[in-house]
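User: ok so my PI wants both of these folded by tonight, can you help

Assistant: No problem, let's get them done. Here's the first:
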Amino acid sequence: GPLTASTLVARWFDEKRGRALGIVAISASTGGMLVVPIMSLLIERHGWRWAVGSTGLVIAAVAALLALFAIRERPAGDGGHATAAAEERWTVGRLFATRDFWLLVLSVGLLLAVNQALLSSLVAYGSDRGFSAAQATALITAVSASSIVGKIMIGLLADIVDKRLLLVVVAVLLDLFLGLLLLHPGFPVLIIGCLLAGATIGGVSPIWAALISSRFGVASFGMVMGLTVQLQMPLLLAALRFIGGSYDRTGSYEQAFMIFALIVPVALIAALAIGR
């Protein structure tokens, strides 16, 4: 979904592409906020098999109808489309031999991995701190809500600010959030931290897509993003496995958060090393 949507947006928009990518990225946040309560209600009333099956059928039907009748490629006579068609396409071998490709994989992959690990453990972290179930859930709600704002803001900035520097800012704010979690603040302070962290977590996706289109061009956008997704997947899986295993061994998330706080600067350095 994100891969095809980002590729389509990159082909459609030449000017203000960052803004467009940020708006489209919002769908992941808003979709999660809408679908999860509906899924919970369906599971409660009809069981998880019926809920998962019916939801899958509805999503498949809606996506197919939109793809066939509502969404279209840019007209062949459009200037931007012609420019994209004239661009030199990257080959897999050439990409693998390009330093900036691996720097992009490393920087974005590490940030996404840490983000996913944090999201998977935030409710449990709140429960361990003695917060009520409602308060612990509110931490995720705060992150999700602010990520919507973050995607728009970062998308707007991606059109006017060096995208590498935006990635650095996101990394710095993520490290500050990890430091805040290690300090065990009270609930009000932690909610504020989650609101700020949500903006950084949501901002990675539009920067990632904008960097690909500006560095490797629109014609090869889908292939480049698809390859980065595959190469980043081991990082995401490793981070999720590590944070769970670390908690099982130590009884807290402190060790994992400290390791992640040391990993994020590696993403920051890799982002700065990407060529203009």
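One down. Here's the second:
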Amino acid sequence: MKKYLNKTPEGTRDLLFEECVARRAVEERLSTLFLSYGYNQVVTPSVEYYQVFSRSSSGLRQEDMYKLTDANGRLIVLRPDNTLPIARVVSGRLKEAPLPIRLFYCQKIFRRHMLMAGHSDECEQCGVELIGAGGLRADLEILTLAVRALDAAGVPGFKLEIGHAGFYNALCDLLDVDEDLRVDINELIEKKNYAALGDLLDTLPESEAVAALRRLPRLFGGPEILDEAAGLCASQRAQDSLAYLRRICAAVQKMGLGDSVTVDLGLVHRNNYYTGLVFRGYIPGSGATVLSGGRYDRLLGEFGEPHPATGFGVEVDELYKALLDSDGAPVVRVPDALVFGVDGYELEALERLGELTGSGLVCENFTGSSRAEAVRYAAVHGIPKTYCLSSGGWEEIDTALEVQA
């Protein structure tokens, strides 16, 4: 049994010192940004009923979830997604709230990953959901907020890819395949496993949709890629999706983000609930997706309250790791002073410590037994001043000068 006494479970890790400071900095920057745009924070339970995530639109496999049972034997899971619980909240406690509803969150998700896959099973996310607003204005608000979120995190050089779920779904609707095969196609495109995708498409009769799906992974670049895509599928739904993306691209150019945003029509989210504009964000030095989101106009209806909706989530862990490697990385703050009370003056010393911290200083209480030990401790930990209380009153000691003497 002692074999695991000093280990963390697979897919998890401890965070120490600078890591905690950097993660908190990212969360505070994102929360401040979201609040400034009129979004209000919500916190959902870490455990939810399995039924919330078992629907096919979630894109979650049951084996990806951490499952347990409650006191009544009902199946519950550790939260593997943040959007679905918020859809539940909006359709329940916020059912009568005036629209649109702007919400944001900063909380963990839990998903099982294959061993040695390089992914953590426990991830911190911050994100926003704009409920009850459809159309271009809402999409531009979310896209602008996504750009500002990556900028606020303090990691320069981000890239954003945009696509449209309607174009991909239009192609799939033209295929004569069952749902399982459609899921396989979705997964292969999402993973960018193009060789396996080609092998799978080889088993299907050749058609306009199959030919377009073969080309789909290579449909990325500037706005000109939309013209090529328009010639691949005559479906009105596909054409409407491309026309909408042209409007988004024009707005992106006006925002001065042309060099940071790429069109990718092979952008297929694992979650099947997306219906319109979709996007992902990346930063230098990280091979992971650090931001992901889009429009999901049908999801709320599955919970009983149909509303248009859009949003995105930010992978805080990826951002704080990148922040640690940057020049602007926050550091663990060294205490401004060490406070020590000799025998009989312990409580007075703690009272003085409270006064100092109340004035904005960071102070540490010394738990040793002598003035000399306190000064040595302060020197080792880089604490510039030591306050010592004895029968003679308070003594303010310059740590460096005392050590040199």
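Residues 18-36 form the longest helix (19 residues). The first strand starts at residue 40 and ends at 41. Good luck tonight!
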